[in-house]
Amino acid sequence: MPESTDILASGQPAVELVDVAVPSQYESSGVILEGVNWQVRGGDFWAIGGLAHSGKTNLMMVAAGVLRPARGAYRLLGKDFTGGFERANLAYRLKIGMVFDGGQLLQHLTLGENVALPLRYHVDEEAKEEPTRRRLAALLEFTGLADWGNLRPASVNRTWQQRFGLARALALKPQVLLLDSPLTGLDPRNAAWWLETLAALASGHPIMEGRPLTLAVTGDDLRPWRKLARQFAVVREGAFIGVGSGSEMALHPEPLLRELLPGVGSGT
């Protein structure tokens, strides 16, 4: 088995879902997507569209290893996790970061403590204080949040909470980054910040030591991602439907694309 860094560098699969049934996070016996076959390779940038409550969030939680598939196989960086997420496999799971819709921050911690939480859990106890301070300062500067680290999440709006969620997801320098609806509710200026920032992370930014990230995002509007993402898919009526690259998407017959990306499918 090659090391995970080799898998990503060579464009091998980073995340694989094989005939997966995506469960509902609210109903233990419920399934929201069936028969999902999705392969995210090193260097990919996926944009996945869907209407509200179509299963986008659940799909990303399964891909991140937060939810266990109801059925099917899940592999992360070449490691088969179908049997479960034992602690012995933690090193693999820490290679994937997720930005939840709205940030999903812990309200009893300061914003800075939320960002530093993964470092305090997973960096060696004897050597973690100074590296944690340096990493936290770099992440807050990168996301433009340095002035607010001592505040509680309730003190800032959803826009900034989402950015703190990004900083937290990048804390351990993951190789794969999943983002659930990062542009929801943003004004044009803040949406542009996210697009520019994710483009920089996909290309290789100093905050990640210049290493390009493999990315997947979801949204109910694919227009902002058309020039940035390299692969596209939609979720509709319990199914995951790959629609290809941007040029392939323009000719794809999937009817939902007319709503998520007006003009696509018309042959223009």
Report on this model:
By secondary structure, the protein is α/β, with parallel strands linked by helices. It folds into two domains: 1-95 and 174-268, P-loop containing nucleotide triphosphate hydrolases (Rossmann fold), CATH 3.40.50; 103-172, no CATH class. The protein is 30% helix and 23% strand. The chain has helices spanning 4-9, 56-63, 90-93, 111-122, 129-142, 158-170, 188-203, 246-249, 257-260; strands at 13-23, 31-41, 45-49, 71-76, 79-80, 96-99, 176-179, 214-219, 231-236, 239-244. The strands form two sheets. It has a six-stranded mixed sheet, with helices on both faces. The chain has a four-stranded antiparallel sheet with strand order 2-1-4-5. Strand 4 and strand 5 (79-80) form a beta hairpin. Helix 4 crosses helix 5, helix 4 runs parallel beside helix 6 (158-170) and helix 5 (129-142) crosses helix 6 (158-170). The longest helix has 16 residues, at 188-203. The protein starts with a helix and ends in an 8-residue tail after the last helix. The model is unreliable at 1-6 (pLDDT under 50).
List the helices and strands and how they pair.
Layout: H1 4-9, E1 13-23, E2 31-41, E3 45-49, H2 56-63, E4 71-76, E5 79-80, H3 90-93, E6 96-99, H4 111-122, H5 129-142, H6 158-170, E7 176-179, H7 188-203, E8 214-219, E9 231-236, E10 239-244, H8 246-249, H9 257-260
Parallel strand pairs: 3-8, 3-9, 6-7, 7-8
Antiparallel strand pairs: 1-2, 1-4, 4-5, 9-10
Keywords:
268 residues; alpha/beta; Rossmann fold; 2 domains; four-stranded antiparallel sheet; 9 helices; 23% strand
